[in-house]
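Researcher: We're teaching a course module on how sequence relates to structure. For the next exercise, students receive a sequence and then see the predicted structure as C-alpha cells, so they can try to spot secondary structure elements on their own. Here is the exercise chain.
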Amino acid sequence: MQKTGRTLTITATVLAGLLVPTLASEAQAGWAHQRKITIDTTASGANVAGDVKGFPVPVRLDATNFDFSQAKPGGADVRFDDAAGKPLPYEIEKWDATAKQAAIWVRTDVKGNNATQAVTLKWGNPEASSESDGTKVFPKADGWLTAHHLAEKGAAAGYRDSAGNLNGKGVNITGDATGPGVVGNALNLNRAKSEYVLLPGSESSSLFNPLPSKGTFSVWSNAKTHPAAYIAMFSKGETGFRIHYFGSGDQTEPCIDVANYDWCPLPSGAYTKVKNNTWYHFVFVIDKPNAYYYINGKLEVGKTDTNAWKTTGTEPVTIGNNEKTPGSNSRKRSFDGLLDEARILSVPKDKNWAKLDFESQKPGSKLLKHKK
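Model: And here is the predicted structure for the students to work with:
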C-alpha cells in the first residue's frame, strides 16, 4: 500500500509539473504562424536611454515582413504576446490586404538601451475574432484624454478618439481627406476651404476646463504652405494649449495661458526651422510651473513661470485650426497640409517618452526588427 501511495504521489507531482507548459502550448494552439519582433532602444536602434512604461508601439506590416494571405480579413486573427506569453493590448489602425499594408498599435513596457526585448506576433487562426481595442492601448488609467489617428476617409464617419472620450468632427471637409501619414493614413487639410477637425463638446468638457496643470500634447505636422501668421496645428483656442507657427516665419511655438498673458516659451538662441513638405513631430509638456517643448525627439526649450496659470476657458479643441467659437473659423488660422497622431494626456511625459514617441513613428524608424 505504501509503495502504491508513493507511486501515486510521484505521478501527481509529475503531472503538476507538466501542467503549466501544456497550458502554454494550448494557448498557442490555433495560430499557425508566429514571429519575434525585437525592440531595439540602443544607439543602433531608437537610441532611448530610459525605460518607458505602457507605451503604444506602432507595428507596420508590409509585403517585406508579412504574408497577408495567411491572415483573416481585417487582421482579425492577429495577436501580440510579451516575453512571458502574456497577451498585449493592440489596436489595428489600418489593414489593407490588397495593398499589403497594415498599421497596428501595441501597448507594452519598453526598456531603455536594450536590444534583446521582444514581442511575439501571431496570426493564422481561422477561429479567432478581432480583439482590437484602442481604449486598452490608450487607457484612461494612464492619463490618456484623447488619441486621434486621423486616418478616417472623410468627415462623414467622424474622427474616432481611440481613448474613447471625444470623437472629432470634420468642418468644411468633403470627400476623402486623407494622405500618407507617418503611421497609417493622415488628415489632409486644404486651407483654401478652411478645413479642420473640431472636438465637439471640448469647449465645456471637464477634461479641459480647467485645463490640467500637468499634461502632454503631441502632433505630427507636414505643411504644404504657410501663407499666414499663427497657423495652428493643434490648439484649444487662445485660452488653453497651442502648438502653432510663431507669426508667419519658419518657427513654431507652444503656448499656454498664465495670469493675464500668453506664455509661449521659446529658445533664446538657435531654433528648429520648420520647412514645408517635411514631417515634424511636436511634443508640448506642461508640469506646473515648468514647460518643455520637443521637436523631433529633441528638447527645443524648457522654461519656468511661477505666476498663476490661467487654465479656464470655453474655446474648443481643434486639430488644424485655432477657434474662438466652434465652426466659425473667425481667427482664420486653419492649417494647409498633413496632420497625424494628435494626442492629449493629463500627465507630463519625460524626455524618454518624447524621444521614443518620435523614434518609433518616424519614417525609417529603427526601433523594431522582425525576425523571420
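Model: If you want an answer key for the exercise: The domain at 144-346 is CATH 2.60.120.200 (Jelly Rolls). The longest helix spans residues 2-28.
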